[in-house]
Amino acid sequence: MQKPSEVAPITELLGLGNHSARKSYYPELAARLDELERERNRYKWLFEHAVHGIFQARLNDGICAANPALARMLGYDDPEQVLWSHTDLAQHLFVGGAEELEFIRQVLRERNGLFGYETQLRRRDGGHLDVMMNLLHKPDEHHLVEGFVADITERKQAQRRLQQLNDELERRVTERTEELLATNRHLQQEIAQRESVEQALREARDAAEEANRSKDKFLAAASHDLLQPMNAARLLISTLRERTLPVAEHALVERAHQALEGAEELLSDLLDISRLDQAAVEPDLDVYTLDELLSPLASEFLPVAEAAGLRLQTHIPPLSISTDARLLGRILRNLLSNACRYTADGGVLLGARKRGDSVRLEIWDTGRGIPEDQLDAIFLEFNQLGVTRGSARQGVGLGLAIVDRIARILGTRVQVRSRLGRGSVFFLDVPLVAQAPSRRIVTPLPTLGDPLPGSRLLVLDNESTILLSMAALLGQWGCEVLTAKCAEEAIEALEGMPPQAILADYHLDDGLTGCEVIAQVRAHFDGQRIPTVMITADRSELCVRELQEQGIPLLNKPVKPGKLRAVLSQLLQ
User: Fold this and answer.
1) pLDDT at position 124 over 60
2) How many helices (H) and strands (E) does the chain have?
3) Are residue 53 and residue 148 in the same domain, yes or no?
């Protein structure tokens, strides 16, 4: 039997004591019971209405409770349908099967929890569901496991789509990279081929330029060598022309003279083309009045025009220009010569007019005109319009090509307008100068008659034929002619008496120039400044400038007898 004093406290504690004791503890117990009921209802409500799946399971027995959300995730209508046993879990729930289920059980035994575990669950329709599970193991005698399941299918799909996009992007990048690499290789091949072609073109250009230079040098050398015997032939022909001959012989001499004229014109043009192509001509610019430049041309071509039955008119305004008188004169002479040559009747006009800050020089003719489609072709080498027979050919078609090149050297260009049957006009623009140049007025020496007869002349040349030809022509003019090939022969031939004038070739034997031999002859006569004229086939700028610096007149081979006589007469006077 227990003691009352011992029984009372226990009954009071359990609420089984007297009425006062029950009355004292009942409210507190009822409140606690209500709170537990509310907590149970809240947990039940959360369990049934949770968005994520919730289940309770035992490690060895399978799922013992599941909420509707988990059933809906798996495609079932009733949570009772997903209460699978341990064996059924591997078959109906986990895609990984028994191996995955065993892995989960092993982890839960070791850690009492598995959080953030991503896996795939089977749906009722056979599909798969991507989920993330948080599992909490309560290691009591029942081995209860509470699980929380979140559907991450959309996130996984998004990840897979992103991965696909990344894979696609990487694939496209790889393909594009391969395309770029292929393109780059192709470009490198093209660049290499282009460099090879450019190198070949450079080599071809260099070879062509070298061939052109060789051609020019050969042409200049050949023309120079041809001019030497031609000069001798001209001198001999000129000597015969001045003699009284029978009519038949005189006609033969004239024909030979005309043949030489044509050959000389061809060689002179070839030499000019060669020098211009080698850029060996540089302009010597100065200021000139139009009257200084155009009046001598008008006087020179007046008899030419009259001989062709043409009228030559001029219009020369009081203007000044900056140009190279020699080069511009060559252009105008060529254009005037063509105008007189290709105009059958009518006239030729040499004129100028102001156009802004330049002066336009014009040469008009009333010739046959030039077709519109041939206006550019006339400036090509060896091109003559309307010539179909050799007998009708005049010149070789180099004149306008030379004109075009000289114009480019002067910084301008020759242009042409023409009308068939009415005539043509050639024109070019030269810079206008506001102030006229101040020229020293040279008073011409009084003419004292023909100074040549009796004159003692020394001829220097390394060609025996030219010495003989020059001696014959000058002797016919009444001169006393002494010939020599070098300074020693010259001094010996002069016999201590200086000549009245020296006619020298520029290039002599042993690399000597006429200037050097002339200096030796002058030195022999105590530095006496003997008048000299240089006759040479060398048309280079170096030769021209050297003679200009020494004040020695220059005549180019083949020398024209009339010009030679005029120069000698001027020197002797």
Assistant:
1) yes
2) 15, 17
3) yes
pLDDT in tens, 362-380: 999 998 888 887 777 776 6
Residue 399: predicted pLDDT? 67
Please give the pLDDT value at position 22: 53
Same domain, 122 and 72: yes
Whole-angstrom CA distances from 252 to 242, 245, 258, 383, 423 are: 14, 10, 10, 30, 36
Closest CA to 403 of 558, 269, 572, 294: 269
Residue 272 belongs to some domain of the structure: no
pLDDT in tens, 405-414: 888 888 888 8
Diameter over CA atoms, the chain: 195
Rounded (to 5) percent helix, strand, coil in the chain: 55, 20, 25
| Amino acid (1-letter code) at residue 53 | G
Instruction: Give the DSSP letter of residue 84.
Output: -
Residues 526 and 562 in one domain: yes
- Residue from 292, 284, 290 nearest 441 by CA: 292
CATH number of the domain encompassing residue 110: 3.30.450.20
Give me the phi and psi of 284, to 5 degrees please: -110, 90
Cβ–Cβ < 8 Å for 105, 59: yes
d(CA 216, CA 219): 5
Task: Give 25's contacts (C-beta < 8 A, 6+ positions apart).
Answer: 12, 15
Q: Judge whether 513 and 506 are in contact, CB under 8 Å.
A: yes
User: CA-to-CA distance for 96 and 108, rounded, in angstroms?
Assistant: 17
**Strand ranges (DSSP E) for 8-112?**
53-58, 62-66
Reported as a pLDDT band with limits 50, 70 and 90, residue 348 is: very high
3-state secondary structure of 497: coil
Number of domains in the chain: 3
- Tell me the pTM: 0.47
Does residue 293 sit in the same domain as residue 407? yes
Query: pLDDT-based confidence at 398, cuts 50/70/90?
Result: low
Q: Considering the domain boundaries, does residue 129 fall inside one?
A: yes
Candidate from 198-212, 226-240, 349-363, 384-398 with smallest mean pLDDT: 384-398
Is the Cα torsion angle 333, 335, 341, 347 positive or negative in sign?
negative
